[in-house]
Specification:
Strand content: 25-35%
CATH class of the largest domain: Alpha Beta
CATH architecture of the largest domain: Alpha-Beta Complex
Order of helices and strands: HHEEEEHEEEH
Number of helices: 4
Radius of gyration: 18 Å
């Protein structure tokens, strides 16, 4: 299938020139424009104090205002394990001791399509931010696009219980 661009040759050259000037993290309006044309890779952190309680943080921006699993975008040339450390420190105030890949979720929102990589993590320190919730009793208004990740965590709990 051949793709027909809506851009002419001069516009393509100008866009390529401008994109070379973009560095991550990109200015927010640029990031939003890129979200409309490219899938975004997100890294989410399931920090559990036990098999039943997950740490959630409160998000407040133009797209959402409620509880969610902490996470962020994987930056260009950044390894997922580095993204985990960056998110853990910035959003939770902790350093991760261990991160274990749980699964992924293909998410669609008005802002973007994202592939969310979910990691279950441990730390030697207690988080400075967030609140623990029972995974069977999430707070009202929990971010719906992350419900598949909660189901993945619940399946892990069931696997641990069966052992």
């Amino acid at each position: 299938m051949k793709y027909q661009s809506k851009l002419n040759r001069k516009e393509i050259q100008e866009l390529v020139r401008l994109l070379k000037k973009v560095h991550i993290p990109a200015p927010y309006p640029v990031f939003l424009a890129l979200c409309k044309v490219l899938p975004i890779v997100a890294v989410d952190i399931a920090y559990m104090k036990d098999e039943n309680h997950i740490l959630l943080t409160h998000r407040h921006d133009e797209f959402y205002n409620n509880w969610h699993i902490p996470g962020s975008i994987l930056w260009y040339k950044e390894k997922p394990e580095h993204t985990l450390q960056r998110i853990a420190f910035k959003e939770l105030g902790i350093k991760i001791k261990k991160g274990e890949f749980v699964g992924y979720n293909n998410e669609f929102t008005p802002r973007e399509q994202s592939i969310a990589l979910l990691f279950r993590v441990t730390s030697r320190t207690k988080p400075k931010h967030g609140t623990f919730f029972h995974i069977d009793h999430l707070p009202k208004g929990f971010l719906n696009k992350q419900l598949p990740e909660i189901r993945q965590i619940r399946r892990l709990r069931e696997f641990v219980t069966i052992r």
